[in-house]
Design brief:
110 residues; alpha+beta; three-stranded mixed sheet; 3 helices; 3 strands; 20% strand; extended
């Protein structure tokens, strides 16, 4: 079993043609229900990757996921700028997150 899923959809889905029906992608501003604790999906859109973060709202606050996404974006930018860098050095948490996590780690709450 796993609780976190990451996926990449490189190509756009082909159009679905059904006789007598008009079919299209569902567009919604409502949050999708999470199938996993955290699901990070990337889709290739033109020359960019578009990420969607779906999460269990019982476990995560939206602000936490926003921080995760911002940290992940910083990581991707650093790796893109220097592909030879070590991943552990490219991924650094913001000071605010370190201030929250360090006491938990020192107490053994993880």
């Amino acid at each position: 079993l796993f609780q976190i899923m990451c996926s990449l959809q490189e190509d756009a889905l082909p159009a679905l043609a059904l006789r007598g029906l008009e079919v299209g992608a569902l567009q919604s501003s409502a949050p999708m229900p999470a199938k996993f604790d955290l699901d990070v999906s990337a889709q290739s859109v033109e020359d960019c990757l578009e990420f969607t973060w779906t999460f269990a709202r019982a476990l995560f606050e939206p602000a936490t996921i926003e921080r995760f996404a911002a940290s992940f974006e910083r990581f991707l930018v650093q790796v893109a700028e220097d592909p030879s860098c070590r991943c552990g050095r490219a991924f650094e948490l913001p000071d605010a997150d370190v201030a929250v996590l360090l006491p938990l780690l020192l107490r053994g709450d993880f």
